[in-house]
Automatic annotation (TrEMBL):
PANTHER family tied to this protein: OXIDOREDUCTASE WITH IRON-SULFUR SUBUNIT
Gene Ontology molecular function: 2 iron, 2 sulfur cluster binding; metal ion binding; oxidoreductase activity
Species: Halococcus morrhuae DSM 1307
Matches recorded under InterPro entries: 2Fe-2S-bd (IPR002888), 2Fe-2S-bd_dom_sf (IPR036884), 2Fe-2S_ferredoxin-like_sf (IPR036010), 2Fe-2S_ferredoxin-type (IPR001041), Beta-grasp_dom_sf (IPR012675), Diverse_Oxidoreductases (IPR051452)
Superkingdom of this protein's organism: Archaea
Taxon lineage: Archaea, Methanobacteriati, Methanobacteriota, Stenosarchaea group, Halobacteria
Domain 2Fe-2S ferredoxin-type: 3-78
Protein name per Swiss-Prot or TrEMBL: (2Fe-2S)-binding domain-containing protein
Length: 182
């Protein structure tokens, strides 16, 4: 059965048709918002993390029936290739991504966490990201990146000061992290 859901998606009022059995991730990906990745599809990997009404949310287990009227932000709402969000810049500059599949979810959860806790210690960052898995990096560089992002978001001074690594120098396989997107 088809239903209509209204969302404020990345700042725009949108109406989507969806199957009653769809998840928020289904709705996003069917409508071109492919930054959120489908990993386990059971709420166990965090690859599909987006922000719903200000909270990091695993979109694969969020039924459409519960999100009508919600405000949703996806990785597509963060920086552009020429103007990365400080969390995206920090991930790039700390080499915190390899295959990139987990990165959109990591970045959304990191952004939401740093907005709540702008000056975390490493153990707080580790705990905040504990629901988001990564099969490639061993996590240490991700923790480095989030520590760095906290400093950059604290007035954005670090980004302005070092200019970051040129985006053209960074390879990315089109994972949706916002780096080198066409
Ligand atoms: S795809 Fe949603 S938690 Fe794994
Ligand atoms: S960079 Fe490959 S899964 Fe995290």
């Amino acid at each position: 059965m088809t239903v209509e859901i209204d969302l404020t998606l990345n700042g725009e009022e949108r109406t989507f048709e969806a199957e009653r059995s769809d998840s928020l991730l289904d709705v996003l990906r069917k409508n071109g918002y492919t930054g959120a990745k489908r990993g386990c599809d059971t709420g166990n990997c965090g690859f599909c993390t987006v922000t719903v009404d200000g909270e990091s949310t695993m979109s694969c287990i969020e039924p459409v029936a519960t999100i009508d009227g919600a405000t949703v932000e996806t990785i597509e709402s963060l920086g552009s290739q020429d103007d990365l969000h400080p969390v995206q810049s920090a991930f790039v500059d700390n080499a915190a991504l390899q295959c990139g599949f987990c990165i959109p979810g990591m970045i959304m959860r990191s952004r939401d966490f740093l907005e709540e806790n702008p000056d975390p210690d490493r153990e707080e960052i580790r705990a905040a990201l504990s629901d988001n898995l990564c099969r490639c990096t061993g996590y240490e560089k991700i923790l480095d990146a989030v520590e760095d992002a906290a400093e950059r978001m604290d007035g954005d001074t670090a980004v302005a000061a070092d200019g970051g690594q040129p985006v053209d120098d960074v390879s990315c396989s089109g994972c949706g992290c916002g780096v080198n997107d066409e």
